[in-house]
Each structure stands twice: as structure tokens, then as C-alpha cells.
Specification:
23% of the residues are buried. By secondary structure, this protein is mainly alpha-helical. A two-stranded antiparallel ribbon has the order 1-2. It is 75% helix and 3% strand.
Amino acid sequence: SKKANIFLRVGVILGMAILGGVLLYAYFASNITMLPQDDLFDIGACFFGLIILLVISIMMAFERKEGDETTVFFYLLMILLFLEGASDINSTLVEGKTNWNLMNAVSNTVEFSLMPLIVFVFWNYQNSLYSEFNKVDKLMTRFLFGFVIFDIVFIGLNIPFGYLFTINDEGHLLYSNGY
């Protein structure tokens, strides 16, 4: 359908914009050569994943497949994975920079809250591949949806209350006790 094709192209454009923005930010706002080796590996792995997602998105955009439910879930999953990778790179780059504490908190919040949403979209994607959708699958979908809403609200409230993690005065992520 036309809506699915528009959604597909918007996803590709959004992915390229996020990747380009993260690349520009990494180049201009951070001295990337001064990062610890494990952070460089994390950033490199995320960039590699973003590039793979971008290539898959472009290949699917040129394929012009009809926008069935499976395709829509797949593209939604790819867009969420783009956002997850970009927020992971961003939170790594702003780690330890005192003037970027709010950006660090927001990036980590986005990163943590996207994970259950990715699981929920993947669940729906894999269910759309099969024609049989029984009562247990429907019940599990409702349970996962409720969990995703709860989790996003719970993690979003961490910014003002800091019960999962905080950003200290030096700009470092500190997990709260028990996490």
C-alpha cells in the first residue's frame, strides 16, 4: 500500500539522518582519539550495526515490496534499532563531559526504554510471519504491551527521581544500588 511505502522511505531517510547526525556529532563535539579502548570498540560496533541496518533499509526500499504487516513490523524494528544504536553512541560520547549531563541522562533513558519496545515489535514481527495466532499469543501480546508501557513510564521517571541511575557531577553514569 502507499502508506507502507511512505513509511518505508521515511524509515530509510530517518536512518540516514540519525547516522549522519551521530557521525557529525562524533566528529565535531568529541575528541574520539582520547576515549578508552572499550568505548571505541562500543562505538565501532554500533556504527557497524547502523551501517548494516542502513544497507538493509536501502535494499528493501529499492525492492518496493508491498506494505504488508510483516514488512511494517520489520521496518519499525529497524528504525527502533537505529535509534537504539544512535543513543548508545551518543551516551558513550557524552560520558564524562560535565556540560552534557542532561544529554547523557536523556540518551541513557532512551537507550534503556527502547529495549522492551524492540522486544515487543520483534514479538509482533515474528507472529506476523505465521498465520496461526492463538489465544496464548494474543494474551502474551497484551501482557508485553502492558509491560512496555509500564517500563517506558518507569524509566522515563528516572530522569527527575534517579532511582535506576544518575549522572554525577563529573558526567559519569552511576547505577543505583541493586542495578
